[in-house]
Write a structure and sequence with these properties.
single chain; 1013 residues; alpha/beta; 8-stranded mixed sheet; 7-stranded mixed sheet; 29 helices; 38 strands
């Protein structure tokens, strides 16, 4: 695909001026502004864009190659040619790659994948040279996932890329060059190479996409004369068109342009290059088009829009899901380190793969043996005659560099590293781990581990058990992700014992690359998975987790055990961030995640979700043959917020199977019942299996399997008893099977969790709305002018102004320093007034020692001022209008540097403070989140008219919370904001106090162009 230029600036005025008045070469059109100008001009085309052509991303047809982009202009972004066409042969005498001309012993060029013992770009102390002394923008470097699940590395271009640029250009087809440069351009002159590879990272910016040693795509923009616009262009190598490189380059160029103060991009594309036009159109921007002489002129603002964000996130999900799909659906597997020694992990992995009857070929790699376990072995992965999709690495960490080089050369798509000795072992191991992941991503591979248990796919078409676990559960519709390998073994054994079938399982170990977020992306669209289980010890990217979990939980329940509340194990420390426990709880509640405290509770809940429908409501019927167990179940149900659909039904210990089944059938058919609990103690005279069959038949006759969940304590069994199982396609327990629990409490607790989740999922999702009457740009200028070293507390005047920009008004006040000024201020404001101590601690004490209320005249003000002087060490006081009575509330922020900002709400008072009665929600907040926040504290009924009191204006309170949430979302530099007290009454809401501090935020938002962390 090609890039873009503004017409009239290329061959004419600007291009000619750059060449000292030289005319364009006949038959060649000059690109303007973005390095799309004629290649023979002395002004270098901006790196990469001129030499590469990228096919536009077509999200609805991900497998179609990128089609040529911008008309033949050097430096244009991806201008795809036809992917079907073979790459153009290299001109005689032109080097095949930069490496061909590099002297021996020369250090790797920027972006060259690190070899064993060699550091990559991100590890080097010195940034690559820019050629003009400008700082190298290292933050623009990124590993990105393409639409087919492969990866490439993006980084700014540098003069050292000249040879690679020439080699890249030589691999482009004639058609790709034509679309990029608007004419023939068989070779790139030295002047153009210099112009393309030398940029200032401000007005002229270019990014290259690297796959191994090679540049495969280039994107660039050049600032135009109007200062807030730039011409954009890109080009993608023919065989890499259709992989989404065009859209990724556009996202990253737009983000870089915004950093440089640009607001819009322009581009010119040949009319016949429809694929390039689609790249811009499908990106979600509002593109304006004009046609002239067979050239389409495009112009669009680059500020993210709701549509552009949705497009980027949909593409992110599809790409990351595809990368995990490739990992879990290999056609062949190599076991590197396969051993004949039964004590070695390499032996265990090979045996487990063979025992599971993997559907593809398995290749042991062992240089000392011709065969392992009767399967032919190979000295190196390079000696394997066929392609290898997945390699399981089971050798010591010290040998991983060499193995990695071989896997990269072989073209292995994914690695599972079960070896230890990496981050968990100290700084040296951490360095090896980082270098390994960096090199793997540059070469298009994803990595699970190191220190992982492995991966499982129970699909009958693959039967993949690339783990150290000898026992696997049956096939099912539950996906499981955990980090600890040792725990993973226990989890798989427990799933087998309790009859919970799995679709896929991943134990990520140190989680150096593939993480739980990747699995959430995969399970979002995986038709074989209905329930998601996560055992998390830490978060790598908590903001992204919150976004992905909230989206996935709308269609599939997520059950999480979150450990590591007080510490993170060493192997995860390098890729983890600390998140406050309050933030974790708010994250889970807001995202609809079902949090449990133990693995046992996780399986209890999963068994219900995997085999039974979600309840439509909270009404529960209890049927059993023991009144004691029935009452116990009823007590737990009511304690968990469930409602009894009637008294527990006790059929008696001597009831026959038919009588028991009739009672169950009657309860199941009742319109007043949403869920059913059966408690059963086997009688002495009749076998329990007879009751089980009667129970199953009764439920089938009532046809409740699709509408009402059923749990039981049948025979105190744990899991799904054979008598209550409905066989699935492979004979294991399928949909409609009735889970059994060893006690009524565990059965009802599982049902209560499912009920709360069903309520969350059925509730309106809400929408993200911005309040009216706000001025965010003015607020931004005020905050930026106030920033300093560390946190800076805003003055009263600044706080009032900042809040005013978001439509939040404080009750009028004055700050005074003596008695006379206090009387004057009270007279000016109008009686009655309040006097408050300037000291925050005195002012907010529950006994109001620092506050004097309802002062109706000057004498009362003088007396109150004298009182405050006796308790305060300063003469300063606040004089404020009396706000009227209302429920005193507090709205404030909790700033988590890794997770982001939480807005909290609670009612004031000693009891509330003592019990920590506050609710939290993370920004951004929907209108539903806002309403839930105001109603979540245990004392919130006081606002709704408790015991006949007049209810407060909850709509006004919600509007205030939304304005605070919008302020902190727009201004992450606001590190502290407290509104206290906020008086809520039937007449509205009055804010009587505010405290605001600002400082540079260390939080990394879940925004910006797509990238792997």
């Amino acid at each position: 695909m090609g890039g873009s230029k503004r017409r009239g600036t290329s061959g004419g005025g600007r291009a000619a001026a750059d060449r000292g008045g030289a005319r364009p070469e006949p038959g060649r059109r000059a690109d303007l502004g973005t390095g799309d100008q004629r290649p023979d001009q002395s002004k270098p085309d901006q790196p990469g864009s001129a030499d590469q052509r990228t096919q536009p991303d077509q999200p609805d047809q991900p497998d179609q190659p990128d089609q040529p982009g911008k008309p033949g202009k050097p430096g244009s972004p991806d201008q795809p040619g036809r992917a079907e066409q073979p790459a153009q042969p290299r001109p005689a005498g032109q080097p095949a790659s930069a490496a061909d001309a590099a002297p021996s012993g020369q250090p790797a060029r920027p972006g060259e994948p690190p070899r064993a013992g060699q550091r990559g770009d991100s590890d080097r102390p010195d940034a690559p040279p820019t050629g003009d002394g400008k700082p190298y923008p290292r933050s623009w470097e990124a590993d990105v996932v393409l639409s087919d699940g492969g990866t490439v590395h993006l980084r700014p271009i540098s003069p050292d890329d000249a040879d690679q640029l020439i080699s890249f250009h030589s691999r482009l087809s004639d058609r790709t060059r034509y679309f990029r440069y608007f004419g023939p351009y068989p070779r790139m002159p030295k002047r153009d190479v210099e112009r393309f590879s030398t940029v200032d990272h401000r007005d002229r910016v270019a990014l290259v996409a690297l796959l191994g040693d090679d540049i495969v795509a280039v994107g660039r923009f050049d600032r135009l004369d109007d200062q807030d616009s730039a011409e954009v262009a890109f080009v993608v190598q023919d065989q890499h068109q259709g992989r989404g490189l065009g859209s990724i380059l556009l996202e990253h160029l737009a983000a870089a342009a915004q950093e440089r103060g640009l607001r819009r991009f322009v581009a010119e594309v040949l009319a016949e290059n429809s694929a390039m036009v689609r790249v811009f159109r499908d990106a979600g921007y509002q593109v304006r088009r004009a046609m002239e002489e067979g050239v389409v002129h495009l112009e669009f603002d680059i500020d993210p829009t709701e549509e552009s964000l949705a497009v980027a996130r949909a593409r992110e999900q599809a790409a990351e899901a595809r990368s995990v799909h490739n990992l879990l659906h290999p056609r062949s597997v190599a076991v590197i380190g396969a051993s004949t020694d039964h004590r070695k992990i390499g032996h265990a992995v090979l045996v487990n793969l063979l025992t599971a009857d993997f559907a593809g070929p398995v290749y042991p790699v062992n240089p000392e043996h011709r065969a392992v376990r009767g399967v032919r072995a190979y000295p190196s992965v390079l000696d394997i005659p066929d392609d290898v999709d997945l390699a399981v690495v089971a050798i010591p960490a010290a040998g991983v560099d060499e193995v990695l080089d071989a896997c990269l050369a072989k073209g292995v798509k994914a690695l599972v590293i079960v070896s230890s000795g990496f981050s968990e072992s100290g700084p040296d191991g951490r360095a090896i781990e980082r270098r390994m992941v960096r090199a793997a991503r540059v070469h298009g591979m994803r990595v699970v581990g190191p220190n992982a248990l492995g991966v499982v796919n129970t699909d009958a078409g693959y039967r993949l058990n690339a783990t150290l676990a000898p026992r696997l559960p049956g096939s099912g519709r539950t996906g499981f992700f955990c980090q600890s390998g040792a725990l993973g073994v226990a989890i798989l054994a427990t799933a087998t014992e309790r009859g919970l079938g799995l679709s896929t399982f991943v134990s990520a170990g140190n989680r150096a690359d593939v993480s739980g977020n990747d699995l959430l992306q995969y399970w979002q669209t995986d038709p074989a998975t209905d329930v998601v289980l996560l055992y998390l010890e830490s978060f790598g990217n908590p903001r992204k987790f919150a976004r992905l979990a909230r989206r996935l939980a709308r269609t599939k329940p997520i059950v999480v055990v979150k450990s590591g509340r007080n510490a993170v194990r060493p192997g995860l420390a390098a890729t983890s961030v600390q998140v406050d426990e309050t933030s974790v709880q708010a994250l889970f509640e807001q995202a609809g995640v079902i949090r449990v405290e133990s693995v046992a509770q996780m399986f209890d809940t999963a068994l219900l979700l995997a085999h039974q429908p979600l309840p439509a409501g909270e009404r529960v019927a209890i049927v059993g043959n023991s009144s004691a167990l029935g009452m116990l179940a009823a007590d737990v149900a009511q304690a968990e917020g469930l409602r009894l659909a009637g008294e527990p039904v006790d059929v008696g210990a001597s009831a026959s199977p038919e009588e028991f089944a009739a009672a169950v059938r009657a309860a199941a058919l009742s319109d007043d019942v949403d869920a059913l609990v059966t408690v059963f103690v086997p009688p002495v005279a009749v076998p329990g299996t007879a009751y089980a069959r009667a129970l199953r038949e009764a439920l089938q006759e009532a046809a409740v399997a699709a509408t009402k969940p059923v749990v039981t304590t049948f025979l105190a069994a744990e899991g799904v008893p054979d008598e209550l199982a409905v066989p699935g396609p492979d004979g294991s327990a399928g949909w409609g099977s009735v889970p059994s629990y060893p006690s009524p409490e565990r059965a009802v607790l599982s049902l209560a969790r499912a009920t709360r989740y069903a309520r969350w999922r059925a509730a309106p999702q809400g929408h993200f709305a911005r309040p009216e009457g706000i001025a965010p740009e003015r607020a931004r200028r005020l905050v930026e002018a106030s920033l300093g070293d560390g946190e800076v507390r805003l003055s009263d005047e600044q706080s009032v102004e900042l809040l005013g920009h978001y439509g939040i008004e404080l009750v009028p006040f004055r700050r005074v320093c003596n008695e006379a000024d206090a009387v004057a201020a009270a007279t000016e404001l109008g009686f009655p007034v309040v006097l408050k101590a300037a000291d925050d601690q005195l002012r907010h004490r529950a006994d109001l020692v620092g506050v004097r209320l309802d002062l109706v005249n000057a004498d009362a003000v003088r007396a109150a001022y004298a009182d405050l002087l006796r308790v305060s060490d300063t003469a300063e006081v606040y004089v404020q209008n009396m706000a009227g009575r209302g429920h005193s509330c507090v709205i404030d922020l909790m700033d988590d540097p890794s997770f982001g900002t939480l807005v909290s709400f609670g009612l004031s008072g000693v009891a509330s403070e003592l019990l920590g009665d506050k609710a939290y929600r993370a920004v951004p907040m929907t209108d539903v989140d806002v309403a839930a926040l105001v109603r979540s504290p245990r004392a919130a009924p006081l606002l709704a008219g408790y015991r006949g009191d007049e209810p407060a204006d909850l709509a006004a309170l919600e509007d205030l919370v939304l304005r605070v949430a919008t302020l902190v979302e727009d201004l992450p530099e606001v590190r502290e904001l407290t509104l206290q007290p906020v008086l809520a009454s039937a007449l509205g809401v009055r804010v009587t106090g505010a405290r605001i501090s600002v400082g540079r935020s260390a939080a990394v938002p879940d925004t910006g162009p797509r990238r792997l962390r």
